[in-house]
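re: that chain from earlier
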Amino acid sequence: MSAAPVADWMRRPVHTVAATTPVAEAVALLQQRRIRHLPVLDGDRVIGVVTDRDLLGVAPDVPVSTRMSRPVQVVSPRTGIDRAARLLFDRRIGCLPVVDDGKLVGILTQTDAVAALVQVLRLQVGGPRAEVIVAWTPDAMVRAQRAIRPLGAEVARLVAATNDPLDPKLTPARVRLEVDTRDLGLVVDALRQAGLHVVTSVEDESRGP
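^ sequence. v structure.
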């Protein structure tokens, strides 16, 4: 079975800025919309991406074109989510603008890709289901996926990751991770080594096969 397309997971509409947009305006937009990435457009064409980190400490009247990353890796809405996720993780980029017929139609972030993978690639490894709660950070889901994946499917598989609370108006306090695992201790150690603060972890021994 082919992987689901990026169109099923991308965010839209996309908030953007022009190359001449002042940093102060871009920062205000990032904060207002509670997002971390802004594609930079020249007309309809994506020419760069600017993030909240790119703008830290930058004079407010400086144009975002001086801080944006380029060239930009883009994908089509028809690109498989597995290929898009590989691009994000292998190239260590935070987002992929989604372009169709030369026009920006969406954006896929690392968090979106992780959410897609834990659903699309949901597998059982024969161990008990465990719930691990970690303190929220903007990249907690991505770091959790990266920490658990090297353990191998025979040891652990991340099957769900959700922010708590889910209310988009509130900043999450925690991230709930559901893991099928033969060794919860290894999972917890891997998460801690990835810099995540593990709040609680428990195996659900009542879960059936």
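The first helix runs from residue 23 to 33.
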